[in-house]
Amino acid sequence: MTSLVAPLTIGTEPPSRKRPISPPDFARGVLLGRYPVKVIEMRVCWLRLAVVWCLMPAVSAAAAPATDVKALAAGIDAHYNHLRSLEAEFTEVYRGSGMERTETGTLWLKKPGKMRWEYRSPREKLFVSDGKDAWFYVPADRQARKTAAKKLEDVRSPLAFLLGKTKLEKELQGLSLAPDVEPLSSGNVVLRGVPQALADRVSEILLEVTPDHQIARIVIQEVDGAVTEYRFGGMKEDVAIGDGRFEFKPPAGTETVEGGMEP
């Protein structure tokens, strides 16, 4: 569904509320140390899922005129709807709530609906789904959170489109070129749109695509001003990835918590 990273002061768990926590309340809580790092991390969990369905498409600038967005979108659909698996290095940058965090790691995707985000720096984390169950695990916390992959769909994360057939123009409202956004590399194309399933939370998504049909960057701008950016490199398409890579068993001594991965 970006990379991450100054140390944060870990506060106490936020008190239970009868009403949803508004973005301003959440931001103030972070600044005052009321929310632990893992709460902030869970807030962006759903963004990883939002990124994944965007990652599988890519644009061929050479396949159609640069101004023909429909043709570009068609090229995205045609190329990536036939992709079976993908491996890539990623950098994730989160800016919001008065902080900036950068993280790096490796991402594996495989049809149908399997994914593994393996964070290596600055600390180890894991987000993995075998298509049925999803896990979020931080070894230093000795805690693993588990939820049904289907429940992630229920909170409007676009898991249903993960590595599946989709049409970019249908999923991103107002899909258009973004000539005002400078790409990371010369020759890349940048598109913008609003994901219909997340329109109340995301104001805009930017996709930067290379001439050889790969997405190099995804920028997710939230309505509360937070920005999450993903940069991808070293992509390997249709590589052999065993199903075991998407399985997870909590290590001995790890507390397992059911649910809790909702945005």
Describe it.
It is a single chain. This protein is α+β, with helices and mostly antiparallel strands. It has one domain (26-257): Lipoprotein localisation LolA/LolB/LppX (outer membrane lipoprotein receptor (LolB), chain A). It contains six helices and 13 strands. Strands 1, 2, 3, 4, 5, 6, 7, 8, 9, 10, 11, 12 and 13 form a 13-stranded mixed sheet that branches. A hairpin with a 2-residue loop joins strand 2 and strand 3 (99-110). It is globular, with a radius of gyration of 18 Å. The two termini are 12 Å apart.
Give the secondary structure arrangement, pairings included.
Layout: E1 4-5, H1 23-31, H2 37-43, H3 45-55, H4 69-80, E2 85-96, E3 99-110, E4 114-121, E5 125-129, E6 133-138, E7 143-148, H5 149-154, H6 168-171, E8 172-177, E9 189-195, E10 202-209, E11 215-222, E12 227-237, E13 255-258
Parallel strand pairs: 7-13
Antiparallel strand pairs: 1-3, 2-3, 2-12, 3-4, 4-5, 5-6, 6-7, 8-9, 9-10, 10-11, 11-12
Structural descriptors:
outer membrane lipoprotein receptor (LolB), chain A; alpha+beta; single chain; 263 residues; 36% strand; 13-stranded mixed beta sheet; disordered N terminus; 6 helices
Q: Helix count, per DSSP?
A: 6
Percent helix among the residues?
A: 10-25%
Radius of gyration: 18 Å
CATH architecture: Clam
Apparent shape: globular
| Overall average pLDDT | 76
> What is the CATH topology descriptor?
outer membrane lipoprotein receptor (LolB), chain A
CATH homologous superfamily descriptor: Lipoprotein localisation LolA/LolB/LppX
How far from one another are the termini? 12 Å
Q: pLDDT under 50 segments (min length 5)?
A: 1-28, 57-66, 154-162
Reading off the top of the CATH hierarchy, the class is best stated as Mainly Beta
What is the strand content?
35-45%
Structural class, by secondary structure, is alpha+beta
Taken in chain order, the helices and strands follow as EHHHHEEEEEEHHEEEEEE
Main β-sheet: number of strands, strand sense, barrel status? 13 strands, mixed
Number of domains: 1
